[in-house]
Amino acid sequence: MQYTSLLKNGAIIIAASILTFTACKKSTPATTTTTTTPALTTSDDNGGYASDASKLEQTSNDAMSTADIAVATNASGLRTTTSYPNITRTHSGTDTTVTIDFGPTDHMCLDGRNRKGQLIVTYSGRYKDSASTHTITTSNYFVDDYQVIFHKTVTNMGTNTSGQVWYNVTVNDSIILAADSVISWTGSRTRTWFAGYGTTLRSDDVYLIGGTTVLTRANGHVFTHTISSTDPLKVALSCKWVEAGTVTISSSTFTGGSRTLDYGYGTGGCDDKAQLTIGTHTYVITLH
């Protein structure tokens, strides 16, 4: 499989000419032109579903990585020089609950993000065993001033044919952007640990994401995101955006069929650009 550059966040439409990638960039069909006309309509929310999906994707993977590090190393892979996060474990029979407490006020973590509140991880048996399942929930949990509400179930599926650990993930997540402004998604994911599995650092972790989720934006519009089976999302915890991957987006609000979102468009590194294709027109999206 080929992978291009990283995911991104937000959606300001800008006029731009198609840039040519080095190495792995997918070529643009000859019949497609980059344009701002016809302009994106309100049925496309000006491409805002790309930004919302990016926020949820990155925050979701961050929480799962935080759980992995906390269970494996206690707080050593998460702390700066302060006493947070504080990690406690309780046992009941074969069940273990790990509470990752970032405190009641913002705490700057090793990755430069502010967090407060709790992530709660519950599992039975050995956390890293194949077929082991754990849940991740939250209690007054905030990341960079956004309240994040998670309920995830993560099942370790063992290793794939490339020897990489992978997981099945069910998601039921929300981010409260502001009062009366909530984005949420539900669905199923596959999550392959592409790089960094053998270290306790979070900064070198890279994941490949597949599956389908249903995104509900703050305005109530609903968009189904289906990740390409041959071009999965590539998410590195060291970047604010998704590096690569192609997503088909469908919605009852659309006219003219589904949309294609290419997170691999851009400079070939960790940038904030994506390309949205509608019919024979493409639009460059700046993610925030």
Kindly summarize this structure in a few lines.
The chain has 288 residues and is mostly beta strands. The chain contains one helix and 18 strands.
List the domain count as a whole number: 1
Number of helices: 1
The share of residues in extended strands comes to 35-45%
**Low-pLDDT windows of residues:** 1-32
Q: For the residues shown, what is the average pLDDT? A: 82
Rg over CA atoms, rounded to whole Å, is 19 Å
* Shape field: globular
Strand and helix order? EEHEEEEEEEEEEEEEEEE
Largest sheet: 18 strands, mixed
Going by helix content, strand content and strand pairing, the class is mainly beta
The percent range for helix content is under 10%
Distance between the termini: 27 Å
Properties at a glance:
288 residues, mainly beta, 18-stranded mixed β-sheet, 18 strands, 44% strand, disordered N terminus
Task: Walk me through the structure.
This protein has one helix and 18 strands. With about 290 residues, it is mainly beta. It has one domain (about 10-285). Mean pLDDT is about 80; it is low at about 1-30. It has an 18-stranded mixed sheet that branches. It starts with 11 loop residues before the first strand and ends with a strand. Helices cover about 10% and strands about 45% of the residues.
